[in-house]
Design goal:
By secondary structure, the chain is mainly alpha-helical. The protein is globular. The termini are close together.
Length: 70
């Protein structure tokens, strides 16, 4: 199962990179529903993950990882 890596706070990373939720909405980078989903800790869709990686200039593996079901 895919999960966020331990200690990853996507919203804090976005904010540190200059991407507030207000700016993302105003520049139509990501909608409120997607932003709220990330705030709630839900995994992003592939499209949202692509956007996050573009904004943060990172790889998907920097944000999420695969953990086998126990």
């Amino acid at each position: 199962m895919f999960k966020y890596r331990d200690g990853v706070d996507v919203m804090a990373r976005l904010s540190a990179a200059g991407w507030t939720s207000y700016r993302m909405r105003q520049e139509r980078v990501m909608g409120e529903k997607s932003i709220q989903k990330i705030r709630d800790g839900a995994l992003p869709s592939w499209r949202e993950l692509n956007t996050l990686c573009r904004l943060l200039r990172c790889h998907p593996s920097d944000l999420i990882e695969y953990r086998p079901d126990d």
